[in-house]
Amino acid sequence: MLHVSMIGCGAIGAGVMEILKSDPEVAFDMVVVPEAHMERARSTVSTLAPAAQVVSRLGEERPDLLIECAGHQAISEHIIPALERGIACMVVSIGALSEPGLVDKLEAAARAGRTQVQLLSGAIGAIDALAAAKIGGLDAVIYTGRKPPQAWKDTPAESAFNLDTLQEATMIFEGSAREAARLYPKNANVAATLSLAGLGLDQTQVRLYADPGVSENIHHVDASGAFGGFELTMRGKPLAANPKTSALTVYSVVRALGNRAHALSI
Ligand SMILES: NC(=O)C1=CN([C@@H]2O[C@H](COP(=O)(O)OP(=O)(O)OC[C@H]3O[C@@H](n4cnc5c(N)ncnc54)[C@H](O)[C@@H]3O)[C@@H](O)[C@H]2O)C=CC1
Ligand SMILES: O=C([O-])CC(=O)C(=O)O
After folding, report:
1. Is 219 in the active site?
2. How many CB atoms lie within 10 A of CB 255?
3. What positions does the domain Aspartate/homoserine dehydrogenase NAD-binding occupy (predicted)?
4. What DSSP assignment string belongs to 175-203?
5. Mutate to test the pocket of ligand 1, among 69, 193, 216 (most ligand atoms within 8 A of CB)
6. Which one of 51, 53, 98, 202 has the largest count of C-beta atoms within 10 Å of its C-beta?
């Protein structure tokens, strides 16, 4: 039985607990959320993982695994201290790692605690292929993200374009993954994941589109190098609970937890 503590109880966290409530090999013992969100989290947790306690920090507990499904702030607040204490961690807010120095801090904390932090693939696929291709040498990685106009609300695109009346696909950003992550931090997880697996934040090229013709979060990757090349298009259905988040992100967390908990890993 794998004893897991979960940070966050929003669209991803609740989705993960919902799927795993019938898995006898995974137990959620703690769910960590900020004080202000505890009441709401308690009501969600009472049906999805009734044995779990809702807390605002991990305290002295030592889960087998701590998984972050919360947001950028949670990495320095909860993941780094847990790694230093030797607790294995998984992270889904990969966009946070575009902050200068944070990847190094994460690695140093895991080394100090003699443990490991796993960065999950989330809404994108082929991270295994890209990371393997990097070993032979990559020439180019181009990422195109395309989402319905409403998914770009509360981003700089909202002041530059009238998202409510867009009639055709409109490129709202072109530049490096580093710049994309700076301007669109809540939509930067895929760009940051591709960068970490591949050519890094400065060499990974990004184009972002607001497209009234789509209802899904469409991620396209074009990679080439010594291995040859690949093109990948993911058409991610957004979660009802948070349209910025593709459902595949939830499944990627469930898969990663299953791979730790079950005898067979794939
Ligand atoms: N790697 C990937 O492909 C993807 C990653 N994400 C990232 O996953 C994270 C969670 O996404 P959603 O579940 O859709 O968000 P959400 O907004 O639905 O839920 C966030 C949850 O985290 C909690 N929370 C917020 N700040 C916290 C903190 N400092 N400490 C502890 N708990 C905290 C909130 O109370 C809430 O329960 C976001 O950072 C998002 O950017 C989202 C989609 C894809
Ligand atoms: O599709 C998703 O779930 C999220 C996304 O685009 C990102 O954060 O890069």
Report:
1. yes
2. 14
3. 8-117
4. EEHHHHHHH-GGG-HHHHHHHHHTT-TTT
5. 69
6. 98
7 within ligand 1 shell (Cβ under 6 A): yes
DSSP 237: P
Burial of 206 (0-12, 13-18, 19+ CB in 10 A): buried
Closest CA to ligand 2's atom 5 = 187
Query: Which of 79, 121, 23, 109 is CA-nearest to residue 3?
Result: 23
- Could you report the predicted ipTM of this complex, rounded to two decimals? 0.98
**Which residue from 129, 6, 1 is spatially nearest to 74, judged by alpha carbons?**
6
Q: How far apart are CA 233 and CA 215, in angstroms?
A: 15
Q: Is 70 in the pocket of ligand 1 (CB under 6 A)?
A: yes
Asked if 14 and 6 count as a contact pair (C-beta separation under 8 A), the reply is: no
**Please, which residues bridge with residue 230 across strands?**
223
Q: pTM score, two decimals? A: 0.96
Residue 162 among known ligand-binding residues: no
16-36 tens-digit pLDDT: 999 999 999 999 999 999 999
- pLDDT, tens only, 40-83: 999 999 999 999 999 999 988 899 999 999 999 999 999 999 99
- What span, in angstroms and rounded, lies between the C-alpha atoms of 210 and 250? 24
